[in-house]
């Protein structure tokens, strides 16, 4: 499962134009907007500090239709624990190397962009709190018991679940359009929506044709995104697309 936390700019150094490095407070021990507590002393930073990448809007994995772009990685990062906070130091790529990195860097300096989102995977099973913090309590709070930092991204709107849902809908529509083109328009959109993922893969491999189904209403994309999802954004998008077209 990949989870996101939201952080903010910590400070802008006087020589920021020269270093292109900005520090963010990525996480602390307080309860976040998702109703979780991620203990600062239980972060595993080893892998991130050996190859820490900085992205924009977590768009660093490539999408399910193969649109991979190395410029989506806009810089490098280093993480450390300081004063009971997870501090992430971001160094943005030069303008001549990556125009997107330059734009994000300038927007941070201008104050338009202020937030980062930290992606991590739990390494141990956590637990719900007690009393009002129990799962069915008035203030349900989940306490993680160990987590590994995967990547950090500058984001537009922190913790916007509705935006995430819209993103999944858009990805599903893109996937169906991609499949329609890949199959040379031999199947109607309604037929593609009724196919199972394995049928589509078989068609793309030209192994067999799927069983035809009666044309019906297009299935709706799920409103709720389960928390026990896959380990990266590409897997999540594929899983959501499968839910949308696999009955």
Descriptors:
disordered C terminus, three-stranded mixed β-sheet, alpha+beta
Plain-language structure description:
With 247 residues, this protein is an alpha+beta fold. The chain has 2 domains: 155 residues, no CATH class; 83 residues, no CATH class. It has 7 helices and 11 strands. The strands form 2 sheets. Strands 1-2-7-6-5-11-8 form a 7-stranded mixed β-barrel. A 3-stranded mixed β-sheet has the order 3-10-9, with no helix packed on it. Helix 4 packs across helix 7. One of its GO terms (biological process) is proteolysis.
Task: Spell out the blueprint of helices and strands.
Blueprint: E1 3-11, H1 16-19, E2 21-28, E3 36-37, E4 43-44, H2 46-50, E5 53-56, E6 73-82, E7 85-92, H3 99-110, E8 115-122, E9 127-128, E10 142-143, E11 147-155, H4 161-182, H5 189-194, H6 197-204, H7 233-245
Parallel strand pairs: 3-10, 4-11, 5-11
Antiparallel strand pairs: 1-2, 1-8, 2-7, 5-6, 6-7, 8-11, 9-10
Helix pairs in contact: 4-7
